[in-house]
Amino acid sequence: QAKAAGRNTVGFFDPQLQAAVTDKAALEADLRLALEQDELFLVYQTQHDAQTALTGVEALARWKHPQRGMVSPAAFIPLAEETGLILELGRQVLLQACSLLATWQDHSATQHLTMAVNVSVRQFKHPGFVQQIQETLALTGAKPSQLKLELTESLLADDIELIIHKMEALQAFGVSFSLDDFGTGYSSLSYLKRLPLDQLKIDQSFVRDVLTDPNDAVIARTIIGLGQSLGLNVIAEGVENDEQRAFLAQHGCAAYQGYLFGRPIPAEQLVQFLSLPAAANG
Ligand code: C2E
Ligand code: MG
Ligand code: MG
Ligand code: MG
């Protein structure tokens, strides 16, 4: 019978598939442990205005696995979303980011800066999310007006009324929103107008070849124009050189983030960079 199934059938013992499944299960178990043992930490990448002045940072999760070394967020974030571990991961990220943010308000050099935190769809849709944000801000003493949540277009796939309602509740509380990786998803323009957004973030895939690929240039310019029409700040991510920055500036882009300005850095380094007291690293 096995023979009749044909040679191209993926059998139960396909070694490659089996290895992939085992590896994924192992990684999931390790991620669970990492979350229990506080192995995840945040790095921070600066964001800048049209005059290249510092306006804030984006917090990015990092995981240093004891054996595997650094695991890419491109691997562990989707895994966390799939398994539901994103709820605990998101809770830890928010707590770490807000703890650091709380130290900024007493210093004139930092009290205007924002902390952007990535929020996954599953996390945002969780019924306790609004309360979690409010509690974390209250617990840490961070100011809502300095917290910016980065959402992605995939959030807009369904339950749009509920999403808008939640965003409005958080906005009323003082929190602001950026739409991350903009242009890669399926935003409906009619929804976009209704969302209480403050910022659109041009995805780095359009920024990368903006000087050489006319399609990317058109997309970047269209997003900038769209932002201007809707009264939204537009930030470009993945800006690596001054030619890209100049092109985007010439077309009205007013904010930037990328290796041109700096790589993501650990909290201790950011605290030094901002010249905050040493005790300030949350
Ligand atoms: P993202 O939010 O779009 O973050 C931007 C990614 O681009 C980061 O990758 C950043 O390190 C990288 N990047 C920044 N500047 C440059 C540049 O000039 N050139 C290039 N080539 N890359 C640049 P990273 O840290 O690997 O994060 C990847 C993604 O993982 C993030 O994309 C975000 O979607 C997700 N992620 C990271 N941390 C979190 C988190 O705490 N929660 C959630 N839900 N997702 C997270
Ligand atoms: Mg982001
Ligand atoms: Mg992005
Ligand atoms: Mg991205």
From TrEMBL:
Q: Which organism is it from?
A: Rhodoferax ferrireducens
EAL domain location = 24-278
What is the recorded name of this protein? Answer: Diguanylate cyclase (GGDEF)-like protein/PAS domain S-box-containing protein
Full-sequence portion shown in this chain: 599 to 880 of 880
Classification from the root reads: Bacteria, Pseudomonadati, Pseudomonadota, Betaproteobacteria, Burkholderiales
Q: Which domain of life is it from?
A: Bacteria
